[in-house]
Amino acid sequence: MTSLRARRLTFAALGAGLGCVSPPTKGDLNNTQLVNDMAETVNELRVVNSELRTSLDSLTLVVARQDTLLRQVANAAGVQLPPR
Protein backbone atom coordinates (compact mmCIF):
# COMPACT_ATOMS: atom_id res chain seq x y z
CA MET A 1 0.00 0.00 0.00
CA THR A 2 2.81 2.44 0.72
CA SER A 3 4.14 1.90 -2.79
CA LEU A 4 0.80 2.90 -4.32
CA ARG A 5 0.55 5.88 -2.02
CA ALA A 6 4.12 6.96 -2.88
CA ARG A 7 3.33 6.74 -6.59
CA ARG A 8 0.22 8.85 -6.21
CA LEU A 9 2.11 11.43 -4.20
CA THR A 10 4.89 11.50 -6.81
CA PHE A 11 2.44 11.97 -9.68
CA ALA A 12 0.59 14.67 -7.74
CA ALA A 13 3.84 16.53 -7.13
CA LEU A 14 4.85 16.21 -10.79
CA GLY A 15 1.45 17.43 -11.93
CA ALA A 16 1.62 20.43 -9.63
CA GLY A 17 5.14 21.24 -10.80
CA LEU A 18 4.26 20.97 -14.47
CA GLY A 19 1.22 23.17 -13.93
CA CYS A 20 3.50 26.02 -12.85
CA VAL A 21 5.48 25.97 -16.08
CA SER A 22 4.24 28.40 -18.69
CA PRO A 23 4.47 27.59 -22.40
CA PRO A 24 7.37 29.19 -24.24
CA THR A 25 6.69 32.62 -25.65
CA LYS A 26 7.71 33.86 -29.07
CA GLY A 27 10.60 35.70 -27.43
CA ASP A 28 11.79 32.49 -25.79
CA LEU A 29 11.66 30.70 -29.12
CA ASN A 30 13.53 33.55 -30.83
CA ASN A 31 16.22 33.45 -28.14
CA THR A 32 16.54 29.70 -28.52
CA GLN A 33 16.92 30.05 -32.28
CA LEU A 34 19.49 32.81 -31.82
CA VAL A 35 21.56 30.66 -29.45
CA ASN A 36 21.41 27.74 -31.90
CA ASP A 37 22.51 30.01 -34.77
CA MET A 38 25.38 31.34 -32.67
CA ALA A 39 26.50 27.80 -31.82
CA GLU A 40 26.50 26.87 -35.52
CA THR A 41 28.50 29.99 -36.35
CA VAL A 42 31.07 29.19 -33.67
CA ASN A 43 31.43 25.66 -35.05
CA GLU A 44 31.89 27.03 -38.57
CA LEU A 45 34.57 29.40 -37.27
CA ARG A 46 36.35 26.47 -35.64
CA VAL A 47 36.39 24.63 -38.96
CA VAL A 48 37.71 27.69 -40.81
CA ASN A 49 40.34 28.23 -38.11
CA SER A 50 41.48 24.63 -38.47
CA GLU A 51 41.75 25.00 -42.24
CA LEU A 52 43.75 28.22 -41.86
CA ARG A 53 46.14 26.56 -39.40
CA THR A 54 46.67 23.71 -41.84
CA SER A 55 47.42 26.18 -44.65
CA LEU A 56 49.77 28.14 -42.43
CA ASP A 57 51.66 24.99 -41.43
CA SER A 58 51.98 24.02 -45.09
CA LEU A 59 53.25 27.46 -46.07
CA THR A 60 55.74 27.40 -43.19
CA LEU A 61 57.19 24.16 -44.55
CA VAL A 62 57.45 25.63 -48.06
CA VAL A 63 59.26 28.73 -46.76
CA ALA A 64 61.63 26.58 -44.70
CA ARG A 65 62.49 24.48 -47.78
CA GLN A 66 63.06 27.58 -49.90
CA ASP A 67 65.23 29.12 -47.19
CA THR A 68 67.33 25.96 -47.00
CA LEU A 69 67.69 25.85 -50.79
CA LEU A 70 68.70 29.51 -50.99
CA ARG A 71 71.29 29.03 -48.25
CA GLN A 72 72.70 25.98 -50.05
CA VAL A 73 72.93 27.90 -53.36
CA ALA A 74 74.51 30.89 -51.62
CA ASN A 75 77.00 28.63 -49.84
CA ALA A 76 77.92 26.95 -53.14
CA ALA A 77 78.41 30.36 -54.76
CA GLY A 78 80.46 31.60 -51.80
CA VAL A 79 78.02 34.37 -50.91
CA GLN A 80 77.63 35.38 -47.27
CA LEU A 81 74.05 35.47 -45.97
CA PRO A 82 73.01 37.16 -42.74
CA PRO A 83 72.22 34.80 -39.87
CA ARG A 84 68.60 33.85 -39.31
What does this structure look like?
Helices cover 83% and strands 0% of the residues. By secondary structure, the protein is an all-alpha fold. The protein has a domain of 55 residues. The N and C termini lie far apart (86 Å).
SSE string:
HH
Query: Roughly what fraction of the amino acids lie in strands?
Result: under 5%
| Poorly predicted spans | none
Q: What would you call the structural class?
A: mainly alpha
Arithmetic mean pLDDT:
88
Rounded Rg: 33 Å
Largest sheet, if any? none
Multimer state: single chain
Task: Provide the helix percentage.
Answer: over 70%
In total, the number of strands is 0
N-end to C-end Cα span:
86 Å
Strand and helix layout:
Layout (H helix, E strand, L loop, with lengths): L1 H18 L6 H52 L7
Question: Characteristics of this structure?
Answer:
84 residues; 2 helices
Quick gist of this model?
83% of the residues lie in helices and 0% in strands. It is built from two helices and no strands. It has helices at 2-19, 26-77.
